[in-house]
Amino acid sequence: MQTADFTALTPLLLLAAAIAAVMLQIALKRSHILTIVLTLAGLIAAMLGVLAVGDMPARQVTPLVTMDRLAFFFIGLILTATAATALLGCRYWEHAVGQCEEYYLLLLVAALGACVLAAAHHFAAFFIGLEILSISLFTLMAFARRRMASVEAGLKYLVLAGISSAFLLFGIALIYADVGSLAFPIWTARLQAAGETVSPLLLIGMGMTVIGVGFKLALVPFHMWTADIYQGAPAPTTAFVATVSKSAMVALLLRLFAPVDFTAEPALFWTLAILAFASMIVGNILALRQDSVKRILAYSSIAHMGYLLVAFLSGGPAAIAATVFYITAYTITVLGAFGVVTVLSRTDADADSMSDFQGLFFSHPWLAGVFMAMLLSLAGIPLTAGFIGKFYAITAGAQGGIWWLIITLVLTSAASLFYYLRIVVAMFSPPLENKTQPPAAGISYSGGLVLTVMTVLLIWVGSAPGPLIDLIGRITQ
Amino acid sequence: MTLYSLLFYLLAIIILASTVMAVTRRNLVHAIIYLVVSFFGSAMLFYLLGAPFLAAIEVIIYAGAIMILFLFIVMMIDVDRHKERLFPIRQCLPAIIFGLVYAAVGLMVTFGHSGSKASMPIAVATPNAFGRFVFEHHWLAVEIVSLLLLVALIGALYLGRLKIEKSAAAGKETP
Amino acid sequence: MNVPLTHLLTLAGGLFFIGIWCAVTRRNLIMVMLGIEIMLNAAALAFVGASLRWQQMEGQAVALFVLAIAAAEVSVGLALIICIYRRYRTLDPAKVQ
After folding, report:
1. Which residues lie closer than 8 Å to A138 by C-beta, 6 or more apart?
2. Reported pTM
């Protein structure tokens, strides 16, 4: 325990301090505005902490976490997404439930869990971070207690996340029984040394770990929860699940499997490749048949995690850079898309069906424009962040020579254009006569701020990705 | 066969039998009591495996706190206990297939793995040494787990709160 | 302890299987939570056994965290179940979803 340890942990310590401050504030006096201000102040302080210590050499603090540049980058991403969620939630919760200050508290704790996950270097940190994240997540999902769908989403996530994390834990126990250490580097070294003759114990342990990771990333066939939960959970929570939880798991995926040489481990490669392939195909096919915007976004997120795995599986340093870029672009886009959904939501239910979006262009041209930009980015149209992300993924895949996955990626993203365009067409068709549009005054400054920032980022990254690519290059070298 | 291994197999049988009894009970209270027996068995096994501190914690937290919490809930809500059909066929089929695969894999591990066939040595981690180890090497984990307990507290408080919705809703509608 | 690790892992695996059987087939939310608890306990048992095999305390430390996690999960889970029960007057997951 030295000063340097604490310096390296600065962002996490600031976040923990923010949690304590918000909790005390709620205990002393309930005030929505004050809670939001404190939450944002804590998040900004933690972000400044990331900026201050982000360039320091990597430091391992206890066997559990290593604070290196990759960890700091992901922590920055997680904090930004959390701040955006908090801002989006501000107007939303004011109307939806009576007392909602706990939402921000849970959000901060969930962000802390995600940060631990992003910096994990040890299986203990992995599952502790994961459990903090999932326990706060199912409370966040059930937070709108008056809505049946919200409580049901929380219940579903509770049961499925409980089972999947038990699988993960048992897998870790088997790995530990075989390897004799819980640290990631020793595990990967052991895997490399074993080559193709991996002991069955390690193999089963690894399989169970993949189930746990696959569940959190919602890869096919562990995707059953996604659509119902995306649809049922309150829109800000959905934005949080889709961005923070996924980017933390991607960071973990990079730490677990990136040092492994896939050519020496065909079993692992084929497992992940089949998951990626199935996710791309099934996610896109299921999305084609949906009428609910939130469900479409849910299935498209499954497909996107498949695309991300293509980048990841290509192997080598380009793979890591492409994966990090992809998840960054995806986070920006999804925050924007769910931001629009949140802003349009009414007090009793979220904006969800196609008819909620019909004629949006005529009532809120600006919102329709933002949503269109986000959808086009998800589809991978040039000049958006999503295009650069996909381009990068394809380049990395071509370097790795995994052509069948690249072809699947290209074909399925072409098909995905159909359902994204369906929403766009609905927005530009004449409004329904008997439909009461959300009031014009319903768009809050905070929501508007988030949407503006995300749109600017989207187009900036899409048209001039140089700075971000440089940054990621420095992180992953 | 030494006394240790005899005790191990005896405990293993008790644990498995009581767990099977627990999951097949229709009456929830009976299920929980059987599970308490199973967790007591696990605690003794922990002791046998050289973890006396964990054995105590298992009794206090698992058999004590968690199971009593379950018991509270079962007694608090009056469950319609006779309506549940135990193990309907639709759900049993996948479970049986899964079970066969599982048994095959288990046998493969048990008999195909040479490294861990040797008998394990006898060792004890005294509570003192264990505490030192945890706070020297895993202090960060202890801090993070404390936050986990905090979030559990807040979550349970929020979800279990009874009246707040109605009063808040009433306050909003009639300002 | 004069038994091989594989016997202990077999016991833990058996417990884990009973747990998942319970969590998947029972139509009662409380039994589902109990099943998850059994699975977590099986994992803790495997950790302690592996810890003895390698003569380290790391596995025991992790088992300690598993207990904490089980307690946290079960408290929030039961609160959510009460929330569900107040609304639906049932604990059958099929009727809720």
Report:
1. A154, A155, A157, A158, A161, B155, C76, C80
2. 0.92
The answer to whether the CB of A101 falls within 8 A of the CB of A29 is no
| C-beta separation of A226 from A301 below 8 A | yes
The structure tokens 């959300």 sit at A438
A155's CB contacts (< 8 A; 6+ apart) are: A138, A142, C29, C80, C81, C84, C93, C96, C97
Structurally, chain B folds into a number of domains equal to 2
pLDDT band at B174 (very low <50, low <70, confident <90, very high): very low
- pLDDT, position B164: 47
> Interior CA angle at A213 toward A71 and A227, to 5°?
110
pLDDT of residue A387: 93
CA distance A343 to A87: 11
pLDDT one-digit tens code per residue, A220-247: 888 888 998 999 999 999 999 999 999 9
Distance from CA of A203 to the nearest CA of B (A): 10
Helix (H) or strand (E) holding A66: strand A65-67
CB contact under 8 A, B141 and A125: yes
Name which of A417, A422, A336, A334 is nearest A382 in CA terms: A417
CA dihedral A419→A424→A428→A430, nearest 10 degrees, is 40
B80 interfaces chain C, CB cutoff of 8 Å: yes
In a domain, B159, yes or no: yes
- Residue A421 — φ and ψ, nearest 5°? -70, -30
Mean pLDDT over the full length of chain A: 89
Contact residues of A toward B, CB < 8 A = 1, 9, 16, 19, 23, 61-65, 97-99, 102, 105-106, 109-110, 112-113, 116, 124-125, 128-129, 131-132, 135-136, 138-139, 142-143, 145-146, 177-178, 199-201, 204
Contacts of C19 in chain B (CB under 8 A): 19, 23
Q: Name which of A108, A245, A134 is nearest C73 in CA terms.
A: A134
**Can you tell me the distance from the alpha carbon of B5 to that of C3, in angstroms, rounded to the nearest whole number?**
6
Degrees, nearest 5: CA angle C65-B52-B19: 70
The full set of domain ranges for chain C reads 11-96
Contact of C21 with chain B, judged by CB distance below 8 Å, is answered with yes
Cα separation, B142 vs A116, in Å, equals: 13
- Alpha helical stretches, state H, A97-147: 101-119, 123-141
Q: What is the pLDDT of residue A457?
A: 93
Q: Count Cβ atoms within 10 A of the Cβ of residue A121 and give its class: 0-12 exposed, 13-18 middle, 19 or more buried.
A: buried
Q: Is B95 on the interface with A (CB under 8 A)?
A: no
Instruction: Specify the CATH number for the domain of residue B74.
Output: 1.20.120.1200
CATH number of the domain at C11-96, please? Answer: 1.10.287.3510
Average pLDDT over every residue of A281-289: 92
Tell me whether residue A60 is in a domain. Answer: no
Using one digit for the tens of pLDDT, what is the confidence trace for B122-136? 778 889 999 999 998
**In a domain? residue B74:** yes
Over the Cα atoms of chain B, what is R_g? 22
To test the contact with chain B by mutation, choose from A19, A139, A165 the residue with the greatest count of B C-beta atoms within 10 A, namely: A139
